[in-house]
């Protein structure tokens, strides 16, 4: 048995919660993962994991073993990094997760500049508005906006998104120009956006002269993906509220028209988030720095 490999596999199973997820993230066949865990338990003569058909839980011995070996694995990674030339020329594969609209409108159009600077880094870009579990899904970092739900994660603020509210000329020709946010509850309609994780509809927010209005709005369609939200707005299905950087190009082309311009919408902070117990390798560190530069110049 390769004990070091078995330790890495054991840690990944604990973090992922299933043998299948661990095998996928490590690029190993599931039977190999199972065999390594069995060999490790046989070597230690203790049961580390309780297995069910759907999930793996850690025994008391397994939890104690994980706590100590996880620190050991992190220290070994740090030693390797300090003795190699990876700090000067980082290489390898990183897994990043971002919201759909951030990927399509901001990161992907500029990613060539990152690869020009770091040609040996492969970026696996998970795209979607579902919040991932960084540990279980083996994600190095995520780019997300709004309030941070898990305060145990490390978050670096990289920017601020300002919002505007828009509709298509065809929509306005049919429904007219709204004069007050309350009209979004009727007779006007909006495009709804609901969380892929909770199903909660995100409210539209407006502020003016100390008055604050928050409403879900009257919608005929709601979606849970930011690209689909934009597509619905451009199709004239309702009024939409999104980032200025995303909407302004459509405004310039005449595809969208700003509405309720005498009201403002509170901006939201944008963060790069990564697990606190994971060594921030050179390849991840340079990506985080590049993302920060990208949003600073946006």
UniProtKB/TrEMBL annotation:
Pfam families: HTH_1 (PF00126), LysR_substrate (PF03466)
Keyword Signal found: no
Highest taxon listed in the record's lineage: Bacteria
Domain HTH lysR-type stretches: 1-59
InterPro entries found in the cross-reference section: LysR-type_TF_proteobact-type, LysR_HTH_N, LysR_subst-bd, WH-like_DNA-bd_sf, WH_DNA-bd_sf
Annotated keywords: DNA-binding, Transcription, Transcription regulation
Membrane-traversing stretches: none
Protein family according to the UniProt entry: Belongs to the LysR transcriptional regulatory family.
Protein name: LysR family transcriptional regulator
Source species taxonomy: Bacteria, Pseudomonadati, Pseudomonadota, Betaproteobacteria, Rhodocyclales
